[in-house]
Amino acid sequence: PAPAPLRGRRALVTAGPTHEPIDPVRYLANRSSGRQGYAIAAALARLGAQVTLISGPTALAAPAGVERVSVETGRQMRDAVFAALPAEIAVMTAAVADWRIADPATDKIKKRPGGTPPELRLLPNPDILAELSAPGPDRPRLVIGFAAETSKVGENARDKLARKGCDWLVANDVSGDVMGGADNAIELLTPQGSEHWSRRSKEAIATMLAGRIATALGPRTPG
Ligand code: C5P
User: Fold this and answer.
1) 80, HSE (Cβ side, Cα atoms, 13 Å)
2) DSSP annotation of 17
3) Which residues of the sequence carry a binding annotation for CTP (predicted)?
4) What are phi and psi of 219, to 5 degrees?
């Protein structure tokens, strides 16, 4: 049988975008296919972890052996994350919208010829990664954040690791064709330093990361 170093461990993974409604037919969102997060959820499950995948709207099928919880907004994602605790491992790949619409319209906003466009008032969404990383009895042992950057990738990632309070940070340069594509290249930042993982498939990145997580957590102590 395949080795299952994460058997008996619970993991939660967030993936995809969130949609913040403007009215019943329009929304605000970040660009995200969900592919990297789905691949990580699948890779953790292959190593034996019990995985809850908390997903915003994507076109992807739930990976085998993974429990998927589908959400739409950032606030729903936050509630689903905290409902999935306790978990030892948290991998936060979702591209959560930074803002939500303060007062979404319950009816479709009409576009009238010559009319003035509506003004959208925004409110900040909860920072799920920062909330989950805050010390507390339910804090997962290993919280991994993601950072999509288009410039100064390493520098911004170091800042983000410190600011969010997570344990590891996976930084990717999304200035090229990474978004929605099949491949990724990353910088893995841990308290021990940083490593560059050159361009490879999102599945290969996921397999490497899951292996690294298993090594970091070590053998499970009985009881
Ligand atoms: O601040 P920024 O969005 O660049 O941070 C990216 C990291 O934080 C990702 O791991 C993302 O999933 C997480 N995040 C979050 N909730 C937010 C914003 C980002 O969990 N509202």
Assistant:
1) 23
2) B
3) 98, 108, 126-129, 146, 160, 164
4) -65, 145
**Per-residue model confidence as pLDDT tens digits over 172-212:** 877 777 777 888 889 999 998 999 999 999 999 999 999 99
Among 91, 82, 85, 109, which residue's Cα sits nearest to residue 23? 109
Tell me the pLDDT tens digit for each residue of 71-80.
Answer: 999 999 999 9
- Rounded CA separation 98/107 (Å): 24
CB-based contacts of 133, cutoff 8 Å, min separation 6: 139, 143, 145, 164, 165, 166, 167
**Is 48 near ligand 1, meaning CB less than 6 Å away?**
no
142: left (phi over 0), alpha (psi -120 to 50) or beta: beta
Segment holding 156, helix H or strand E: helix 153-164
- 156 is annotated as an active-site residue: no
> Of all protein residues, whose CA lies closest to atom 2 belonging to ligand 1?
147
And the tokens for 26? 């329009």
